[in-house]
Amino acid sequence: MKTESSGPLVSIITVNYNSTEVTVDLLRSIQRLAFTSWEVIVVDNASREDPTARLRAVEPQVRVIVSPVNLGFSGGNNLGIRAAKGEYLFLVNNDTELTEGLIEGLLDVFRRHPDAGMACPKFHFFYHPEIIEYAGYNALNVWKGSCTMVGNKERDEGQYDREGVTNFAHGGAMMVPAAVVKAVGEMPECYFLYYEELDWSEMLKRRGFRIYYQPRSLIYHKESMSVGRKSLIKTYYHCRNRILFMRRNVGPVALTAFTLYFIFFTIPKNSLLFAVRREWDHFKAFWRGIFWNLSHYGIKK
Fold first, then answer.
1. What angle do helix axes 252-261 and 232-249 make, rounded to 10 degrees?
2. Per residue in 17-42, pLDDT tens?
3. Which of 48, 54, 143, 279 has the fewest C-beta atoms lying within 10 Å of its C-beta?
4. Nearest residue to 240 (alpha-carbon basis) of 190, 293, 187, 282
5. C-alpha closest to that of 209 among 77, 114, 68
6. Is the pTM of this model over 0.70?
7. CA angle, 123 then 124 then 126, to 5°
């Protein structure tokens, strides 16, 4: 735990899964920060090898929690949240690197906005550092059951350098006060992977909190390194959790609109694409995501 600088203690929480060297890069970026009132918690989600020794060789004060089972993104983060001592929790993907002033910018959101329940930095792609990944989220498209990132794949020319309220948090880096987590609850674990931060955002908003985008804070993201750009896991959970998110978070009119769109457009389109490409494993994963929702009702957590 570093406490050299003044300021509230920030618990930096990340989840590692078979990507120790990527996590090492994150730790090194944390060490370069001028802000030093932090603790770092790494939750290992049942990787093939225990990363504790390698991580402590880089950052001796890191707290490593090794889970005997893979708890998924939300479960892993929640395990870290329960162990955290900080007044503020900064949940960050291990495939990111922090920049100077990031923590201070996010903390400033909470100092100036009493209604802030969560704050997210601006994201740039690590391998294309001049290109924006995230500058906030657009509103939910109730037909598609998805939302798009503001500024995604645009060159950053300062066009999104205005701090303000956004619709959803980016799960790759989000700061939340510990008091808000206590009031609202932990991240929902029914998703395992994908959509959980969107659901958590809705939980916060229902309790009267707002989500802020802070452009003065910048993070670089090595997008999708642990799962891969095209994987069966991604196909399955994107389908499964897209439906689950809508079931949990929209009213009957919006849910009906989404259901009709999904049945008459999404299912035929995706099934045809997978069939034409002869991607039968993805075809099956997509349909497994649908059938999971047909057999699981009353999901509360």
1. 150
2. 999 999 999 999 999 999 999 999 99
3. 48
4. 293
5. 114
6. yes
7. 125
